[in-house]
Design brief:
alpha/beta; 14 strands; 376 residues; single chain
Length: 376
């Protein structure tokens, strides 16, 4: 990657000079994307992410994209579609298949005041770059006594897709959320994707942005407010997707949809579930979670990742520490199986939480495992 840039600027050009040249790049003149202002339009998660990148690149010339196939191919999942034509190859950089290399370049660019958005084709490949993410990006602000900010976003699909095996199916939410200095976001809906990605790009600290491949094509209703170019969601604040009084269900990313479907099933059986979309894994909105548990007196956590040392485990610890006296039943964790992801489709389904798993856990917590009719 450096070789390509150096070739354009001259063989004797230093890395610092190249980053300085990148910093002076200005976006191509173009109008912001226009959206209808109707009350509730449909928008896919893919379009939400694309529009957020587009608007932030237009608003701030320091923002640039880099990753495998983000330019000429329009993105492996078409998230960056149209951005190369609009902003040019200086701001939409196709990289070789070397995550360690281009992630290091991105962190270095952020040191110099630029705002890179680094795409991983899947977060499983971020393992190749994890030293740059944790030891360079996450720790530099602290180790420099606040003198160095690292405004960088690491984004891409996270967690299980379908039929891609153990090495391409891991959820990295708990991995990165364990690291001080990082912010970790996991959008569910189009509103989440658009508002949180804008917040991530504007944030002065490194942000790990965990998307879900299976959600890219999903459409969600969005209000006129979401289409506004100034729209932004706060980092560290969860959203109550469904209010309830009998049990609290926390989830993030794709599992929010499963939790909402489970809540509909439970409602037919007289269990009124409150569903919390975490949105932000680090910082975690402990206040919203504990306030809900103090109202419902029961808790289920849902995640695709492994159960041990997972996001759900941290939530359970928080509730036990802050709201133990309010619990009327043991906390239930619904998580992925504690095994590498199987390749066979029937086993893969068993390894990932399903809607019925959430329903069963809720019934156990509400002491309704046996149908009421059986007790008659």
């Amino acid at each position: 990657m450096l070789g390509i840039i150096r070739q354009k600027l001259g063989a004797g050009t230093s890395s610092a000079t190249m980053l300085g040249q990148l910093q002076r790049i200005r976006p191509a003149a173009s109008a912001l994307r226009s959206f209808s202002s109707s009350a509730k339009e449909q928008m896919t998660v893919r379009d939400a992410l694309n529009s957020a990148l587009d608007e932030e690149m237009s608003a701030d010339p320091k923002v640039f994209l880099m990753g495998e196939e983000v330019g000429e191919y329009q993105g492996a999942y078409k998230i960056t579609k149209g951005l190369l034509d609009k902003y040019g190859p200086e701001r939409v950089l196709d990289t070789p298949i070397t995550e360690a290399g281009f992630t290091g370049i991105g962190v270095g660019a952020a040191y110099y005041g630029l705002k890179p958005v680094v795409e991983f084709m899947t977060f499983n490949f971020s393992m190749q770059a994890i030293d740059h993410i944790i030891n360079s990006a996450a720790k530099s602000n602290y180790m420099s006594a606040g003198q160095i900010n690292v405004p960088i976003v690491f984004r891409g699909p996270n967690g299980a897709a379908a039929g891609v095996g153990a090495q391409h199916s891991q959820c990295y939410a708990a991995w990165y959320a364990a690291v001080p200095g990082l912010k970790v976001l996991a959008p569910y809906s189009s509103e989440d994707a658009r508002g949180l990605l804008k917040a991530a790009i504007r944030d002065p600290d490194p942000v790990v942005f965990l998307e879900n491949e299976l959600l890219y094509g999903e459409s969600f209703p969005v209000s006129a407010e979401v289409f506004d170019s100034s729209f932004c969601l706060p980092i560290g604040k969860a959203k109550i997707e469904r209010e309830g009084k009998d049990i609290t269900i926390t989830a993030f990313s794709k599992m929010v949809g499963y939790a909402l479907q489970a809540a509909e099933i439970l409602a037919k059986e007289g269990i009124n579930a409150e569903v919390i979309n975490l949105r932000s894994i680090r910082p975690l909105d402990r206040a919203t979670i504990n306030a809900s548990v103090r109202k419902t007196n029961r808790l289920i956590t849902v995640e695709e990742g492994f159960p041990q040392h997972g996001v759900g485990a941290e939530i359970c610890a928080s509730v036990v520490e802050e709201s133990f006296g309010y619990l009327d039943a043991p906390v239930e964790r619904v998580a992925g199986a504690d095994v590498p992801m199987p390749y066979a489709a029937n086993l893969e389904r068993l390894a990932v939480p399903q809607i019925e798993d959430i329903v069963r856990a809720a019934k156990r917590a509400c002491y309704r495992s046996v149908p009421l009719a059986a007790n008659a």
